[in-house]
Amino acid sequence: MNKLIYLDNAATSWPKPESVYDFMVDFARRCGVNPGRSGFDMAIEAGNILEDTRKRLTKLFGGDVEHPERMVFSYNATDSLNLLIQGLLSSGDHVVTTNLEHNSVIRPVKHLVRDGGVEATFVPFDSAGFVDPDDIKKAIRPNTKLVIVNHGSNVIGTVQHVKEIGAVCKEAGVIFAIDASQTAGRYPIDMTACHIDALAFTGHKSMMGSTGIGGLCIRTDIDIRHTRSGGTGVRSAYPYHLDEYPYRLEYGTPNTMGIASLWAGQEWIEQQGGVAAIHEREMMLAQKLVDGLKQIDGVVTYCCDSLDDHISTTTINVEGLEAGDVGIMLDVDFDIATRTGLHCAPLVHEQIGTLDIHGGVRFSIGAFNTDEHIDAALAAIGEIAVRAKEMGKLAASK
After folding, report:
1. pLDDT on residue 37
2. Which of 6, 77, 133, 269 is buried deepest, with most CB atoms within 10 A?
3. Cβ–Cβ under 8 Å, residues 337 and 5
């Protein structure tokens, strides 16, 4: 395991910083109790971590720092997106989204279209992997309630021009939300400057936190209705779920350990020089990887002619081989971990022409990858491409 080259950071970042592991263990031993439910010191300290993390993340995303209670915690981005989509849309509403979306958006929207009387428009992206803000504008109707866009693609790595899309939505008076699963912690985001009304994120990717934690940052003039109810530890005699934030969208005992991991992850990110510095280092490696892949005969790349407005995620195929087989070779023969298949984003693969060939091979670079890792990946793909050609010649000769 020690020699594994891990290039599947779009699925989850690994390893985590040592400081995150250490902080979580220390926190669990020192004050790993139910926060805010009791008045003893340990419970108060646990609650303080929650509130401090709300403030830090609100600032990180450019949210309303005067209202950190609008940063609500969830299980992950999928959970946040379900809270958002199901809590905003009703029968007769129209939602605009894109072909870049993950199933965490596609499926809630499709369920509401099928079962809830909601209408939806999925806007395609261009040959470079970007959605034209004018196409979003054209898709907006009088009954459009929500525009939701994948900020960074988990397949092709393109980062959408959310400032321009946000301006379109603001002019139209439509709520604008982004899925920041792939960008939170690795790409600068400013909700205020980009007119973003709601941002969903997960903690276990570039935020350097644990699995099972995520959140939703919401502007103060946006209200999301209850789709759940339960305990909050506050005003327990009141028979209905509370309307005020953060309790409005938080239910039961929070994942305090997960939130502690986010706090520690933010500490580490700041120590590295911040999100922009991490992004710059990752993109240097991504450029090296893409440049090398393009030199290998038989390798097909997608939407990476330029890496401007990209994250460090690239999907390829090797001619003559199934993506899954390439992934197995990388793992078994070269100790390189990637992700193959459709990446829970079937509309992306449909548009780039890889749906019927079972997707592609995704390389996703993280904060702990090195030049040596990229060299090894390029050498491995080069050897696999040679094998594919030899197998093709052998099959043709029979």
Report:
1. 64
2. 77
3. yes
What backbone phi and psi angles, to 5 degrees, belong to 72? Answer: -110, 145
Mean pLDDT within 238-267: 94
Q: What tokens were used for 295?
A: 């030199």
30 phi and psi angles, rounded to 5 deg: -85, -40
| Interval 30-41: pLDDT, tens | 988 888 766 788
Pull the structure tokens for residue 100: 């870049």
With a cut of 70, say whether residue 2 has pLDDT above it: no
Q: C-alpha angle with apex 179: 175 to 182, nearest 5 degrees?
A: 155
pLDDT at 1 over 60: no
The domain made up of 5-14+273-397 is a member of CATH 3.90.1150.10: yes
Tokens representing 112? Answer: 């509401």
CATH class of domain segment(s) 18-271: alpha beta
Q: Does this model's pTM top 0.70?
A: yes
Express each pLDDT in 259-290 by its tens digit.
999 999 999 999 999 999 999 999 999 999 99
pLDDT for the residue numbered 190: 98
Please tell me the distance from the alpha carbon of residue 82 to that of residue 224, in angstroms, as a whole number: 11
Reduced 3-state DSSP string for the chain: CCCCEECECCCCCCCCCHHHHHHHHHHHHHHCCCCCCCCCHHHHHHHHHHHHHHHHHHHHCCCCCCCHHHEEEECCHHHHHHHHHHHHCCCCCEEEEECCCCHHHHHHHHHHHHHCCCEEEEECCCCCCCCCHHHHHHHCCCCEEEEEEECECCCCCEECCHHHHHHHHHHHCCEEEEECCCCCCCCCCCCCCCCCCEEEEECCCCCCCCCCCEEEEECCCCCCCCCCCCCCCCCCCCCCCCCCCCHHHCCCCCCHHHHHHHHHHHHHHHHCCCHHHHHHHHHHHHHHHHHHHHCCCCEEECCCCCCCCECCEEEEEECCCCHHHHHHHHHHHHCEECEEECCCCHHHHHHHCCCCCCCEEEEECCCCCCHHHHHHHHHHHHHHHHHHHHHHHHHHHC
**Domain layout of the chain by residue ranges:** 5-14+273-397, 18-271
Say whether 18-271 and 5-14+273-397 share the same fold. Answer: no
